């Protein structure tokens, strides 16, 4: 596996990806500076799947970047493109959600950038088709958490140092979220709702709420969808479920059955 990242962020990203607090990266993971186009294009030639995501609610991946990565002349073996988008149906949105973003959490998804995400999705679909690859759109709401929880309990997610980076109190609510919300639910299509009038109270909430998505849950859903035939040329949303343990392989397989209905 390989990850493109800005050269200026390389050390921070390596720190966040380190296993068990040891500072060592997984042997099968390579970070590639975005400026190293020779290495990127070498890797693209043999890559059979690409995962594309942007964490910022105000940004989507630039069409020029999509066209560069999904250039039929650069990719020879591409089978699937999985892209993270957002819940765009507008349900559970409105002034309370927008107010919560301004007052409590700038990363609240309030649907204000929906047009850009719709365009992004179409760009992904068009570019994948030109490469002869399938696409999968994975939808998220307000992204929360994303690291390993207490005591590096789940090292497949970001390292504990993530909590220091996001800390603005004695205990970061991101850690509390990761400890309390390890469950996941999937729904086919663009159907999940936002938090509605409860948004001001849920913006930094560490319990199960409508309109939230766990970064860890979304990332794992994206990766696992690669092995799900029914996920090809489909979109589905990722929501949260209160749980102290992450889903098992069997539970993930059961959740993905929603795509076959």
Distance linking N and C termini: 31 Å
**Helical amount:** 25-40%
Largest sheet: 5 strands, mixed
Low-confidence stretches: none
CATH architecture label name: 3-Layer(aba) Sandwich
User: Taking Cα atoms only, what radius of gyration do you get, to the nearest Å?
Assistant: 18 Å
Tally the beta strands: 9
Tally of distinct domains: 1
For the biggest β-sheet, the strand order reads 3-4-5-9-7
Strand content: 15-25%
Structural class: alpha/beta
CATH class: Alpha Beta
Number of helices in the DSSP assignment: 10
Which fold name is given in CATH as the topology?
Answer: Rossmann fold
Q: How confident is the prediction overall: mean pLDDT? A: 94
What's the shape?
globular
H/E topology pattern: EHEHEHEHHEEHHEHEHEH
Protein name: NAD(P)-binding domain-containing protein
Provide a brief overview of the structure.
This protein has 261 residues and is an alpha/beta fold.
How does this structure look, described?
It comes from Skeletonema marinoi. This is NAD(P)-binding domain-containing protein. It is a single chain. The protein is an alpha/beta fold and 261 residues long. The protein has one domain: Rossmann fold (3-Layer(aba) Sandwich), CATH 3.40.50. The protein is built from ten helices and nine strands. The protein has helices spanning 10-17, 37-46, 63-69, 95-103, 114-130, 161-165, 173-180, 199-202, 215-225, 249-256, and strands spanning 2-5, 30-33, 49-52, 80-86, 134-140, 142-144, 183-188, 212-214, 234-241. A five-stranded mixed beta sheet has the order 3-4-5-9-7, sandwiched between helices. Strand 1 (2-5), helix 1 and strand 2 form a beta-alpha-beta unit. The longest helix is centred in the middle third of the chain and has 17 residues, at 114-130. The chain starts with a strand and ends in a 5-residue tail after the last helix.
């Amino acid at each position: 596996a390989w990850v493109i990242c800005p050269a200026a962020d390389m050390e921070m990203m390596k720190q966040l990806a380190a296993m068990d607090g040891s500072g060592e990266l997984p042997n099968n993971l390579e970070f590639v500076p975005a400026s190293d186009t020779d290495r990127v294009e070498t890797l693209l030639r043999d890559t059979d799947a690409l995962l594309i995501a942007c964490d910022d609610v105000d940004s989507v991946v630039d069409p020029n970047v999509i066209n560069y990565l999904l250039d039929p002349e650069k990719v020879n073996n591409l089978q699937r493109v999985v892209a993270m988008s957002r819940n765009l149906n507008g349900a559970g949105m409105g002034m309370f959600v927008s107010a919560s973003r301004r007052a409590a959490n700038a990363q609240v998804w309030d649907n204000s950038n929906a047009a850009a995400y719709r365009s992004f999705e179409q760009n992904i679909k068009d570019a994948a088709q030109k490469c002869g690859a399938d696409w999968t759109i994975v939808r998220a709401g307000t992204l929360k958490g994303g690291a390993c929880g207490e005591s590096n309990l789940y090292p497949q997610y970001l390292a504990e140092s993530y909590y220091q980076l996001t800390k603005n109190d004695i205990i970061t609510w991101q850690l509390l979220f990761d400890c309390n919300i390890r469950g996941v639910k999937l729904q086919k299509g663009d159907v999940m709702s936002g938090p509605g009038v409860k948004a001001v109270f849920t913006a930094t909430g560490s319990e199960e709420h409508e309109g939230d998505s766990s970064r860890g849950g979304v990332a794992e859903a994206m990766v696992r969808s690669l092995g799900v035939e029914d996920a090809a040329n489909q979109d589905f949303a990722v929501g949260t479920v209160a749980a102290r343990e992450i889903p098992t392989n069997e539970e993930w397989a059961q959740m993905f059955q929603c795509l076959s209905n």
